Amino acid sequence: MSDPAPGQQRPVLDGAPLFLLDELPDAPELLVGGAEGRHAVDVLRLTAGEPVRVGDGRGTVAEGTVLDAGPAGLRVQVAARLEVPPAEPELWLVQALPKGDRGPLAVELATELGVDRIVPWAAARCVTRWRDDRVEKGLARWRAAARAASKQSRRPRVPEVSAPMTTRQVCGELEDVDLALVLHEQARRPLSGIDVPDSGTVAVVVGPEGGLTDGEVVALRAAGAQVVRLGPEVLRTSTAGAAALAALSVTTRWR
């Protein structure tokens, strides 16, 4: 972290909006242009003197104040730079492909609740199928949702959205995590009864609208995953992951 010069007051940035650039230049002034700049000027109506943050989505954040807001976007005077380390434990969401707009919704909610990696999963009973010609479009929508939700929740790190995976590929990924949890409404063991590590990687697996097949449950268990339930209610596939991430964060990140 770089500190303000002697005698210079560090800006009060509680609640300051966050803007994301693909690259964050190491310069005393930054320009937030394009769609980000138009949003800042036309929607947020930011003016000179207001505190802002500008990040690269990978943990580097510049804190500063607006010098000018105009057609070109925001000019920001940088007061300090910092590197925000990844939160612990690392949280993954293996999300079966929901239908319609529920996929981006699941990504949005999970991002706001701190997920670090999202794996789109082509489960057996998924209604939605990302055929070869739809993969890039589907990934683009999910990644755009993750980026927008990161800005809204003022997260300095945008979660990774990986390429879609088959059940076999998901099981291969789960073999290397520290704790893998499969949400299932018929499980006897509650999520609240699981000992969650404070570090390492914790993965949550959420099935599709039609539920998990017996074969998928067997395969996931063979990969080391534990089958758990959230509570007596049956949540939609688009909200179950977010609920699980919140429950996990209460005992780890939010203490």
From TrEMBL:
GO cellular component: cytoplasm
GO aspect biological process, one term: rRNA base methylation
SUPFAM superfamilies the UniProt entry points to: alpha/beta knot, PUA domain-like
Protein name: Ribosomal RNA small subunit methyltransferase E
Family: Belongs to the RNA methyltransferase RsmE family.
The keyword GTP-binding appears for this protein: no
Domain Ribosomal RNA small subunit methyltransferase E methyltransferase: 89-248
